[in-house]
Specification:
The structure holds two protein chains of two kinds. By secondary structure, chain A is mostly beta strands. Chain A has one helix at residues 126-131; strands at 10-23, 29-41, 44-55, 62-75, 78-89, 95-108, 111-124, 140-142, 146-154, 162-169, 183-191, 196-207, 215-228. Chain A starts with 9 loop residues before the first strand and ends with a strand. Chain B has nine helices and twelve strands. Chain B is globular and about 40 Å long. The chains are: A mainly beta, B alpha/beta.
Amino acid sequence: MLIFSAAVTAQPGVSIYTDLGSNNVSNGIFIKSAALGFYKYGKNKFEAGFQTNLKNNNKNGFSGYTISASRNISIKDISFGLKGFFTLTLPSEILSETNWGALIEMRHRHFEMSMGTNFRTYNLRQNAVTRYEIDNTQTKIHEVYNLMYSFCYYLKPVDENWNIGLSVTNIDYFNINQETNPVINLKGMYKISSPVALYMQATYKSAGVTNLELNYFGFFFRTGIIWNIN
Amino acid sequence: MEHQLTSRFALLFLTVLTLSSCTKQEDIEITANQRFIQSMDWNNTHSYREIIVPDNDYMILSMGDSHVGGTNNLDNFFNTARMKKVAAVVMAGDLTTGQKNDYNMFEKHLPPQDSLVSFSVAGNHDLFSGGWNEYYSRFGSSSYYFTIKTPHTADLFICLETGGGTLGTRQLEWLTNLLRTARTGYRHCIVFTHNNILRPRHTDSTNPLVEETGALLNLFAEYQVDMVITGHDHKQDATIFGITTYIIMDALKDGESNAGYFQIRVENGNIGYEFENF
């Protein structure tokens, strides 16, 4: 996840990435792309983005939307970010999933850490309600709170020009897994110039971690660019 | 300095890799897809079962998480099923701890098929310590379907294996194809599996990843599955989404304060249910 810096001036930017991967429900290779725009103003940051399906068994062209606001806070020598977010994803033509929640984000010389909670709701979309004559009281499931976490260790200090990191997390931009389903990311980042950075990520997903009966679920490779405009 | 960092990173990477795969090698080798292939091999030599009942109304009992060792509740369950003259019982996983002696114990208490028709699926505990081989040698397939035929109609019952936290690609494909080709030929459709799909309470038990949860919710809604019956979480819940009722059963395990089973009644063309506790 993008961690904002406490710049005093206004700073717009954009992040674009593409995922290529496969998992147990993708029916072959999937390719997804996403764009996120952000605007930093002093200690505040606003971010919004969408995800598109380029190749997928999901027939929705746009399959995810996210919006978030965060603020950097310092208490004595401890600096951390507070973030609130909302995501909407469309796993199929008849189903949608919403998540809202809050995160505390911290970074230290080699570490980035996020912890928080989210609340998930599955919804049957209107076309399903009409098609299957579903009672309006039976179109939503609200799940109880879920623990969100991301622990990332970087080989070099986090502000270096290039870096490699390894993380364990259940959070992604448009996908928040249950706390019992952590995924492993190996990430690389390279700052081409002061406003532009390239990043890559390999993600491995397994099922049944807390079942103590592991099974492969999926993987994807991500490559993207972050451009801090002006 | 760089060397020190590299060593530290390598150590962390290896630790995470080890933690992410801390299960016995024999368990790793049998994947969800491999278990499904074995189940299909078994299905190819044992045709699907059709239970014919004399009345339009009938009853099924289901249980999960007996975790044998203890067999008091298991015996009570089987005795109740015989007393109620049910059409069948379905045992939705975690029947044992995966140990051979517990499988032997379970088998010793399981009534013969001619006195009580029973079906089972494997749960995560049944797979421990190479438990799949023990399961397969006794029960055979863990991915199959059976039907109940009444004088006027027929209902479809699908049993799925989710002990590994996922259906796997092949089982999902099989399920999708089965629902696509067969669902319309039956009045009701009920799915049994071990892992609960939804998280109605905060719990440390594993569900399918959200991608798979979404795919299953979609499939069950699209093909009008009436009920999905699971165990795993040991605490009863019934959540309705679309026309599908998602059930989590209490555990049958001896010593559980809420130990019990689940009763499905098909009456006057409708499905009714009760959670029954000992």
